[in-house]
Specification:
mainly beta; Rubrerythrin, domain 2; 3-stranded antiparallel sheet; two-stranded antiparallel sheet; 1 helix; 34% strand; globular; binds zinc ion
Length: 56
């Protein structure tokens, strides 16, 4: 499992399919965002639901 270094989305390949950013295996924690209006989503700057790394 890898995380995008740009948008922090959890992805499979070496390139993020969403923003074309580089991905890394070196990330900490996963957060699942269902509601982009939630406090955690706002704090992490997430604008689309999905799985994200807490720290990349
Ligand atoms: Zn990305």
């Amino acid at each position: 499992m890898r995380a995008c270094t740009q948008c922090r989305r959890i992805v499979k390949g070496t390139k993020c399919p969403v923003c074309q950013g580089e991905t890394t295996r070196n990330f900490q924690g996963i957060v699942v965002i269902f509601d982009t209006e939630s406090e955690i989503a706002k704090k992490l700057g997430i604008t689309a639901p999905g799985k994200y790394a807490i720290r990349v």
